[in-house]
User: What shape does this take?
Amino acid sequence: MLIVGEDDQNWATVESAEDMIQMMRASGNDHLLTTLRYPGAGHLIEPPYSPHTRASNFIILPKRQKVVMLWGGSPKLHSDAQEDSWEKILSFLQQQLYHSQDSVTYRRCNADEATTPK
Assistant: This one.
């Protein structure tokens, strides 16, 4: 799953996502990729109600150089992306981890047996 804030000022997320989509398509695996794109959202689309910051200050050691990191995103659109993506992330994980048709269940066995599918 890719989650893309289209106003990310820190990373070329749109371009990176497009590259990954093309690689998955070229390998015949694009059906395995879910992409969520959010216009107006910035970097760090975290769980809902996490504070949104368009920029923050950092000190890079050892020279103690001060830098400003730009994250992008408008508060409303970024917050909307947090809420929407969180529900979709939970649903995706639930489906992929617990309800997958392709999942394999392993049984417990004694030390002399190899662990094999049921």
Summary: Confidence is low (pLDDT under 50) at residues 103-118. Strands lie at 2-5, 35-38, 55-60, 65-70.
